[in-house]
Amino acid sequence: MRPTARSPVADWRWSCDPDGLLDDLSTGVRAEVEHLASEITVRDSMVYLDGAAYTGTGPGLRTESRGRLMLTYLTDIRGEQIVIVQVTCFD
């Protein structure tokens, strides 16, 4: 039996700062945020394959828009996580 390689995506996660950032959002908007944050996490895990071993400069504060939603986030490459710092919903 051949050993299987572990996916680098498995180590990456996303979070919010502050912790309660999503608390006041409707269920639908929260689901959209979770979906977009997961997509960003997968994408960045594929861009920064070195993860915790990365020694370059991080990309800084960025935004991602999808439909009525805009997320402002940081990619913590060495921490292998996306940190959502602002959510804007254009209803």
Q: What's the layout of helices and strands?
A:
Layout: E1 13-16, H1 27-47, E2 61-66, E3 69-76, E4 81-89
Parallel strand pairs: 1-4
Antiparallel strand pairs: 2-3, 3-4
Protein name: SnoaL-like domain-containing protein
Organism: Cryptosporangium japonicum
Describe the structure.
- This protein has about 90 residues and is of the alpha+beta class.
- The protein has a single domain (about 10-90), classed as YaeB-like fold.
- About 25% of the residues lie in helices and about 30% in strands.
- It contains one helix and four strands.
- Strands 1-4-3-2 form a four-stranded mixed β-sheet.
- The longest helix has 21 residues, at about 25-45.
- It is elongated and about 40 Å long.
- Residues about 1-5 have low confidence and may be disordered.
Task: Give descriptors for this structure.
23% helix, YaeB-like fold, alpha+beta, disordered N terminus, four-stranded mixed β-sheet, SnoaL-like domain-containing protein, 91 residues
